[in-house]
Specification:
Elements lengths: L2 E2 L3 E2 L1 H14 L2 H14 L6 E2 L21 E2 L8 H22 L1 E3 L7 E3 L5 E3 L5 E3 L2 H16 L2 H11 L6 H19 L17 H13 L7 H20 L5 H9 L4 H15 L5
Parallel strand pairs: 3-7
Antiparallel strand pairs: 1-2, 4-6, 5-8, 6-7
């Protein structure tokens, strides 16, 4: 089936999911992802990544060093300060690799992390990792600034860099509705909950229904492959932060991660870091 009720053309979505599922079955590739993450997060004292053991790893068996930690769900009932520390580490573990290396953890649910004695986190699963071109990363940062400045022309440029086709002013307005929902915690310069007190069952539902209806009126859309796991993972990260009930200034955290952002610097880090870890360049 090529479309979902004529609103979403799913061809590239299907291709993307197929590619990621195949990667999930290749433990040699996952070991390279693990090495890459150890490098990307080496300067983060609150995030630990296991080391893959090459001599004990095959395409069907992945062996890594042991990291002590407790289930992250144990932190849900911890004091706010402890939850905030875990949440800040989660945020950094997701956004730093993306902003600096064009790499995301495509499955950021709470089962993929444990909490360390020092209040930091262990990052454990590297089967669903998505890498992007430096230009795409620039498109995400451009979209953030476009929403800040209410600059639809910059937003249109950003969506084209994401891979969207036929980016009309009408489509930009509709896409911005969803983008604002995703980016609002990052745009709002204050200490807050991600969902800002909206019941979990309702958070995002109104926006999703409204965007779906308007896209259908415009004749539908064909999301590019790059959009699929970027959107899924961003929502997953938000869900994890909501579950922790963290109260943080996510705007300041995000600004720290994108400070001095430069597309060429991302490309340079990719060439160096990906090659050293054995990860193919995007």
């Amino acid at each position: 089936q090529r479309s979902l009720d004529r609103t979403i053309d799913t061809r590239e979505i299907a291709e993307e999911i197929e590619a990621r599922l195949k990667e999930e079955l290749d433990y040699l590739r996952e070991a390279t992802h693990m090495r890459l993450y150890r490098s990307m997060l080496a300067d983060c004292a609150d995030i630990a990544v296991p080391e893959p053991l090459a001599k004990l790893t095959t395409m069907r068996l992945l062996t890594m060093t042991w990291l002590e930690g407790k289930p992250i769900l144990d932190a849900v009932d911890a004091p706010l300060s402890a939850r905030n520390r875990v949440a800040a580490a989660l945020f950094r573990a997701w956004w730093r690799p993306f902003a600096r290396y064009g790499t995301i953890h495509g499955d950021p649910h709470l089962g993929n992390y444990t909490v360390r004695k020092n209040g930091g986190i262990n990052l454990l699963d590297f089967g669903c990792i998505r890498t992007f071109s430096a230009s795409f990363v620039g498109g995400v940062i451009d979209l953030y600034h476009a929403l800040q400045r209410k600059d639809d022309a910059l937003a249109a440029t950003a969506y084209r860099r994401w891979g969207f086709r036929s980016v009309t002013p009408e489509l930009v307005r509709v896409m911005n509705m969803w983008a604002r929902f995703i980016f609002t915690p990052l745009l709002d310069d204050r200490t807050r909950l991600v969902d800002d007190g909206v019941p979990a069952a309702e958070y995002g539902l109104k926006q999703a229904n409204e965007v779906h209806a308007k896209l259908r009126q415009l004749g539908g859309i064909r999301p590019p492959r790059e959009f699929v796991f970027m959107d899924r993972a961003a929502i997953g990260l938000g869900g994890a932060l909501i579950r922790l009930g963290a109260r943080l200034n996510f705007h300041k955290l995000f600004e720290e991660e994108i400070a001095n952002f430069d597309v060429e610097a991302v490309a340079d880090r990719q060439r160096t870091g990906f090659t050293a870890a054995g990860v193919p360049l995007p």
